[in-house]
Specification:
FAD/NAD(P)-binding domain; globular
């Protein structure tokens, strides 16, 4: 019998924690606090601007091992780490960074995977600057935060790319005999996270995806230059390796109903159906050829490989003068995509000022570097067409900022007599989207004003027993990491619900 076998329950874990605590103290002593405080943040290498505007390759090139370890040495390993409380999925950030500092990359990834099944994706698209990095204690000392997102991306990329294998975290059990079946509707970040956590709890999990490839908004909404499809596929392979079955081309509500799935033995459901219903401005000319919703435009390019036409038979207009209406990340993705498809002039029109733009700071910076024009406090009032019904221009109006609206931001107010005209070949409307109504309108769910599923945010439970929801179906257009946080909360709640039901 081994020493480990003779230990009392819980004693082995306590010993492990004590060893880790001693190890971390040794790590802290190797480099002084003053040195950590005075070391500047390490910039991630990027493609040169002149090259990247002509391709769909990733802009950020990632850290080398040397850069990652150097950046990890900036972490103070605080006694009360603000970064963890700033993370919607509660990654143990100081510990995984200390492992990188020590060169223990396998342990670093295992620590992240305890709460995050999509680290290579989160490291690329999550708004760390307003979440974990904003709460980094270095900021309180007047320094730049540790590059937490860059480090998370590095460790996931380094191991998965180097070994081309799926590394399962400790405690990954797979489906257990007698455990219930759980259905996840939608394979976006919320659905994938819920599925992964439920699989690790031993449930038989099936994800039903309406499109021909899994990933949801990760697949159709985010361009290759921000999230390469090889990275997305690697993360989905990890979810499958946990025992999750993913069925594509399967529309719950059309292919089959939720009641049919209940009859097939599914005991609980997570609805991660996303926000696939685009919003428009309801102005004259929106039906002209050349006016697109951001959903359609990006889906053609990203999911259907329209940027590789005619190799893939999905034509996408390659316009010379492109207007994108909106100021969020989706607008940035659309306008930078248009530039890469050959636009000679690509312009963002946003009805508020730069200070109110919801897009990530990094995305705005990259867009400016690439020559994207920004026209603030401006809104289209009508689109103009030619005799063939094709877009040829638009009439815009200048705005001024007034009193704050319900969002707390200053309300844009039209300036009389300020209308002007611009020539435009392609317009992309990126002003938001509403939850996909296909399934949720078929169910007697309690819905909010904008068609979103109402939930108890403590549990993500809907108004119907055994049905939980999260992500954009609940929040409208939100972030990847918030959807993942919803998925984690829902998985824990489903586990509690099924165990309680079993008695």
């Amino acid at each position: 019998m081994s020493v480990k076998d003779r230990l009392e329950p819980g004693q082995a874990e306590r010993l492990r924690q004590e060893r880790e605590k001693d190890w971390r103290k040794a790590q802290r002593r190797e480099i002084s606090v003053q040195t950590r405080l005075t070391t500047p943040r390490h910039k991630m290498p990027e493609q040169p601007v002149a090259a990247r505007v002509r391709n769909f390759l990733e802009v950020n090139l990632g850290y080398t091992l040397e850069l990652a370890r150097a950046e990890a040495r900036r972490c103070l390993d605080c006694g009360q780490p603000g970064c963890v409380t700033g993370c919607p999925v509660a990654i143990d950030i100081p510990t995984f960074i200390k492992y990188i500092e020590a060169g223990e990359l396998d342990r670093a990834l295992a620590k992240i995977r305890e709460t995050n099944g999509l680290p290579a994706i989160c490291g690329r698209v999550c708004p760390q600057e307003v979440q974990c990095e904003k709460a980094c204690n270095l900021v309180q000392a007047g320094k730049e935060p540790v590059a937490i997102g860059h480090l998370e991306r590095f460790v996931a990329d380094y191991l998965c790319t180097r070994e081309n294998t799926v590394q399962l975290p400790a405690g990954s059990r797979g489906a257990e005999p007698g455990k219930e079946k759980v259905a996840v509707v939608g394979s976006g970040p919320g659905g994938l996270t819920a599925a992964a956590d439920l699989a690790r709890l031993g449930y038989q999990v099936t994800v039903f995806e309406a499109l021909h490839l899994p990933g949801g908004v990760l697949a159709y909404g985010i361009p290759e230059f921000r999230l390469p499809r090889t990275i997305l596929q690697s993360e989905i392979n990890f979810i499958r390796a946990l025992g999750v079955e993913i069925k594509t081309n399967f529309i719950v509500g059309k292919t089959t109903s939720l009641d049919d799935l209940r009859q097939a033995g599914y005991a609980a459901f997570f609805l991660g159906t996303g926000a696939g219903l685009p919003s428009f401005m309801s102005i004259p000319g929106e039906n002209l050829l050349g006016v697109f919703s951001a959903n359609e435009y990006l889906t053609r390019v990203n999911l259907m490989k329209g940027f590789r036409f005619p190799e893939f038979d999905t034509p996408v207009p390659r316009a010379r003068r492109v207007a994108v209406i909106g100021g969020g990340n989706v607008a940035m993705d659309a306008v930078r995509t248009a530039l890469r498809l050959g636009a000679s002039r690509a312009v963002i029109y946003y009805r508020r000022s730069r200070a109110e733009m919801p897009a990530r700071v990094e995305e705005i910076k990259h867009a400016e570097e690439e020559g994207i024009e920004f026209n603030f406090l401006t809104v289209p009032v009508r689109f103009l067409g030619n005799e063939r019904g094709e877009l040829r221009g638009m009439v815009l109006q200048r705005l001024a900022l007034g009193e704050p609206d319900a969002s707390g931001r200053p309300r844009p107010v039209p300036i009389p007599g300020s209308e002007f005209e611009e020539e435009v070949d392609l317009a992309v409307v990126a002003i938001g989207q509403s939850p996909n109504p296909l399934l949720i309108k078929q169910l007697p769910l309690k819905l909010g004003r904008w068609g979103n599923v109402e939930v108890d945010y403590q549990t993500m439970a809907t108004s119907l027993e055994g049905i939980y929801a999260g992500g954009d179906a609940v929040r409208g257009g939100a972030t990847v990491i918030l959807a993942m946080g919803d998925g984690r909360t829902a998985a824990r709640s489903i586990d509690f619900y099924l165990r309680r039901k079993k008695g």
